[in-house]
């Protein structure tokens, strides 16, 4: 793969992670959500929007940490990936989580853009995972839970 093809692939992966292309972006899914609805668990759904946002943050951070280093901490599934329901989340906690999601996407983008990292070669510390696979995992995982956020917002009558 020449540099121009690699750049095209990296740009597509970044666009998929950040924008979603064929679906609502994560940023759009949480934009304008009234603070009082962050922790409400809609009827017949298992999680609040806050829990979904935190799950996206935790899982994405784990994927980025794993992709960047053999020394990343191991999380236990599912306990370490989900937060318990809570009554209220402060603006500071909410904004911190949203900023962390964006910062981790930027960290991963830097890994993808660094030409010393081959996109296809399995990471030496993994079990066959490559940067390409991890990019698709982030995009797929975030898209799945972003859709859940949209559904929750619709049920809470807080969607467009």
Key words describing this protein structure:
160 residues; Four Helix Bundle (Hemerythrin (Met), subunit A); DinB-like; globular; DinB/YfiT-like; 56% helix; mainly alpha
Give a quick precis of the structure:
By secondary structure, the protein is mainly α. Helix content is 56%, strand content 0%.
Distance N terminus to C terminus? Answer: 42 Å
DSSP helical segment count: 5
Alpha-beta classification:
mainly alpha
CATH architecture, by name, is Up-down Bundle
CATH superfamily: dinb family like domain
The helix content is 55-70%
Organism: Dyadobacter chenhuakuii
Protein name: DinB family protein
Can you characterise this structure?
This is DinB family protein. It comes from Dyadobacter chenhuakuii. Residues 30-149 form the DinB-like domain. InterPro entries: DinB-like, DinB/YfiT-like. The protein has 160 residues and is an all-alpha fold. The protein has a single domain, classed as Up-down Bundle (Four Helix Bundle (Hemerythrin (Met), subunit A)), CATH 1.20.120.450. The protein has helices at residues 3-18, 26-30, 49-68, 91-113, 131-155. Helix 3 (49-68) packs parallel to helix 4 and helix 3 packs antiparallel against helix 5 (131-155). It starts with a helix and ends in a 5-residue tail after the last helix. The model has no long low-confidence stretch (mean pLDDT 96).
């Amino acid at each position: 793969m020449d540099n121009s093809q690699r750049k095209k692939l990296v740009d597509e992966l970044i666009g998929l992670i950040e924008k979603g292309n064929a679906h609502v972006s994560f940023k759009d899914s949480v934009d304008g959500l009234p603070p009082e609805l962050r922790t409400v668990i809609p009827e017949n759904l298992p999680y609040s929007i806050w829990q979904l946002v935190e799950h996206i943050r935790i899982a994405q951070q784990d994927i980025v940490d794993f992709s960047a280093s053999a020394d990343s901490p191991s999380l236990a599934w599912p306990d370490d990936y989900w937060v318990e329901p809570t009554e209220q989340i402060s603006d500071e906690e909410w904004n911190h989580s949203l900023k962390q999601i964006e910062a981790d996407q930027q960290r991963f983008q830097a890994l993808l853009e660094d030409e010393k990292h081959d996109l296809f070669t399995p990471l030496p510390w993994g079990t066959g995972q490559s940067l390409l696979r991890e990019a698709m995992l982030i995009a797929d995982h975030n898209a799945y839970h972003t859709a859940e956020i949209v559904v929750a917002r619709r049920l809470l009558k807080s969607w467009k």
